[in-house]
């Protein structure tokens, strides 16, 4: 009986989802950015800067938020020069605000109010400010844990709260994007603090999606893999070898590749945005009770989860091998040093006795 119900459900549902996916592919319902205001936190560098360039090319007015004024100024010039071929005065298209998103709430609120006063209400918010540090658990200072949570989670929370309030009041819809990480979906060696912060961003986005749906405001979460950016270079300086070897499995992408997909998914209202096969596999596997925003993703989650779980077992097995190998190397190096030390100890003892 249960089998009959299930098979008839699947037989009816699958064609419906396929037709819907095809319909959405050929007649996409998209947000449009021409003349709209897009605020990008972390817009002075890396993925955020690439996003700023992409949305400006789609005709949006852009606000870049970050701390370092020089980098902000340089980013403004870069975005403006990318838009020189567009009609209108490209120099008035981009404005910058220097704010520490881990700092005082009043400063953040004031910056958003000023940004909206000059460029109009924010239609699309892209939370891209953030950073990563990988370290072995017991070596992570409390101050770093706090900073990771303050910037990656609380920074996004505060800016979004302020922007969404206005979006809801105006009732004209809007787009909110969060930047998590593939490390926000899977806990990896060295990322205990970072994964906790980025994982929390995912749950924030899932809950907010449910709240904002009736208001026509869509929520997207971007899960970048390793992406060639100044932030990534900084992260590599202290990354444990295990973390580097494991995260290399998903490949290295450019910030433009990640940003292009982010903007495309956000404008289509897709909840998930990622690039590469590993990103697709991971987001499909971890979809769980996450929002359903497009039929194609739902179809792949329905039919590929079992297979991907099996493939993930091989990935996890190879990750454990990396960790075990590195652990053994350390033990061997440690015992060699110990042996050398004890040789030195006996030698000095012998000298003393002589
Ligand atoms: N690159 C990767 O491999 C990768 C992978 C997964 C996820 N991500 C995530 O993607 C996002 C962008 O990363 P990215 O690699 O493009 O980094 P990035 O090149 O270092 O850019 C980070 C941006 O955030 C700003 N920022 C950092 N802390 C801030 C604060 N407290 N207040 C205001 N602005 C702040 C930075 O400017 P200032 O320093 O001047 O403030 C900069 O504009 C981050 O959330 C990161 O965690 C990156």
Shape field: globular
| Radius of gyration, taken over Cα atoms and rounded to an integer in Å | 24 Å
Distance between the termini: 92 Å
CATH architecture: 3-Layer(aba) Sandwich
Low-confidence stretches: 344-348, 350-354
The CATH fourth-level homologous superfamily: NAD(P)-binding Rossmann-like Domain
CATH topology: the name is Rossmann fold
Q: Please indicate the count of domains.
A: 1
Structural class: alpha/beta
- pLDDT averaged over residues: 90
Bound molecules: NADP nicotinamide-adenine-dinucleotide phosphate
Helix residue percentage = 55-70%
Oligomer classification: single chain
Sheet-strand content, in percent, reads 5-15%
CATH class: Alpha Beta
Description:
It is a single chain. The protein has 354 residues and is of the alpha/beta class. The chain has one domain: 3-Layer(aba) Sandwich (Rossmann fold). The chain contains eleven helices and nine strands. The protein has a seven-stranded parallel beta sheet, sandwiched between helices. A two-stranded parallel ribbon has the order 7-8. Helix 6 (192-212) links the parallel strand 5 and strand 6. Helix 2 crosses helix 9 and helix 8 (241-247) packs antiparallel against helix 11 (295-353). The longest helix has 59 residues, at 295-353. The protein is globular. The structure holds NADP nicotinamide-adenine-dinucleotide phosphate. Residues 42, 44-48, 66-68, 71, 100-102, 128-132, 151-152, 155, 179, 181, 224, 226-227, 229-232, 255 line the site of NADP nicotinamide-adenine-dinucleotide phosphate. It comes from Scylla paramamosain (Mud crab). One of its GO terms (cellular component) is endoplasmic reticulum membrane.
């Amino acid at each position: 009986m249960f089998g009959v119900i299930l098979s008839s459900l699947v037989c009816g549902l699958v064609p419906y989802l396929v037709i819907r996916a095809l319909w959405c592919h050929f007649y996409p319902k998209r947000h449009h950015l021409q003349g709209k205001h897009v605020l990008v936190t972390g817009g002075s560098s890396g993925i955020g800067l690439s996003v700023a360039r992409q949305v400006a090319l789609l005709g949006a007015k852009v606000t870049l938020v970050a701390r370092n004024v020089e980098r902000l100024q340089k980013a403004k010039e870069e975005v403006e020069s990318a838009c020189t071929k567009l009609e209108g005065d490209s120099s008035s298209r981009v404005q910058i605000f220097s704010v520490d998103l881990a700092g005082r709430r009043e400063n953040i609120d004031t910056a958003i109010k000023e940004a909206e006063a000059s460029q109009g209400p924010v239609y699309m918010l892209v939370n891209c400010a953030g950073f990563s540090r990988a370290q072995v658990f017991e070596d992570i200072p409390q101050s770093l844990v706090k900073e990771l949570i303050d910037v990656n989670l609380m920074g996004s929370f505060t800016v979004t709260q302020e922007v969404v309030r206005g979006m809801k009041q105006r009732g004209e819809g809007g787009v909110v994007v969060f930047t998590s990480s593939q490390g926000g979906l899977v806990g990896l060696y060295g990322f205990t603090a970072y994964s906790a912060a980025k994982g929390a961003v995912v749950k924030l986005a899932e809950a907010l999606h449910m709240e904002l749906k009736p208001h026509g405001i869509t929520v997207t979460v971007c899960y970048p893999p390793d992406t060639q950016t100044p932030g990534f270079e900084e992260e590599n300086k202290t990354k444990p070898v295990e973390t580097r070897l494991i995260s290399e499995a998903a490949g290295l992408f450019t910030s433009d590749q990640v940003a292009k997909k982010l903007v495309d998914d956000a404008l289509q209202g897709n909840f998930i945005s990622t690039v590469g096969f590993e990103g697709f596999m991971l987001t499909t596997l971890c979809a769980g009770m996450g929002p359903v925003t497009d039929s194609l993703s739902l179809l792949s989650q329905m039919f590929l989860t079992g297979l991907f779980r099996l493939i993930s077992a091989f990935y996890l097995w190879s990750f454990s091998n990396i960790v075990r190998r590195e652990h053994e190397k350390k033990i061997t190096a440690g015992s060699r040093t110990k042996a050398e030390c004890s040789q030195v100890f006996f030698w000095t003892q012998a000298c003393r006795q002589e």
